[in-house]
Amino acid sequence: MAEAVRVLIADDQALLRGSFRVLVDSTPGMEVVGEAGDGATAVRLTRALAPDVVLMDLRMPVMDGIAATREICADEKLSGVRVLALTMFDMDEYVYPALQAGASGFMLKDASPSDLVNGIRVIATGEGVLAPTVTRRLISDFSRRSGTARPAPRLIGLTNREQEVLVLIANGLSNQEISERLVISMPTVKTHVGSLLAKLHARDRAQLVIIAYESGLAERGMPA
């Protein structure tokens, strides 16, 4: 039997923490190992408990979710921990900074229970997840910042096919959708994604999205 996904819940609202606990603990293959009401406590408990996934509210006292995420993701001893950032608003100015800090995914608190559970599962496997409205927000933000992309010499080592896959990841497509769009097999897509993660030194899919936008590749689109 596979081990249960161990989840730490960090939110300053006790009622929401309780709701998330009931949802996670009632889901087969998942368990809540701790709760935190502020970012500093979230960091301390993460170091003590090493959960698989931290559900991280971004707006908390003492230390906000972005700072807490940055500390967790910068700790080499916590390399196996993934952060799923949560917010009430898809237009939250914390969206991009949270992903830059190392969050593996971003979801809205009003997501359906099934979507949230699926997000936790995806994050736990080492992939990343972005709510569709958040992906559209990132695309819109970077489109307005045209010309601000920084040079990214790391992209020079990518093949044309890898660049194609990276652009599609940045636009929110799943592996299955990429397979259909490029007419290649799922194992081939996974091979390309694994190569991108290795070559770009990215923790997960969410970090690939950041690199694609910061480099300007997402705006330039598919290579010729």
From TrEMBL:
Domain HTH luxR-type: 151-216
GO biological process: phosphorelay signal transduction system; regulation of DNA-templated transcription
Source superkingdom: Bacteria
Signal peptide: none
Listed Pfam families: GerE, Response_reg
Keywords: DNA-binding, Phosphoprotein, Transcription, Transcription regulation
CDD domains named in the record: LuxR_C_like, REC_NarL-like
Domain Response regulatory residue range list: 6-124
InterPro entries per UniProt: CheY-like_superfamily, NreC/VraR/RcsB-like_REC, Sig_transdc_resp-reg_C-effctor, Sig_transdc_resp-reg_receiver, Tscrpt_reg_LuxR_C, WalR-like
Gene Ontology MF, one: DNA binding
Modified positions (4-aspartylphosphate) in chain numbering: 57
Keyword ATP-binding: no
Protein name: LuxR family transcriptional regulator
Lineage, top ranks: Bacteria, Bacillati, Actinomycetota, Actinomycetes, Kitasatosporales
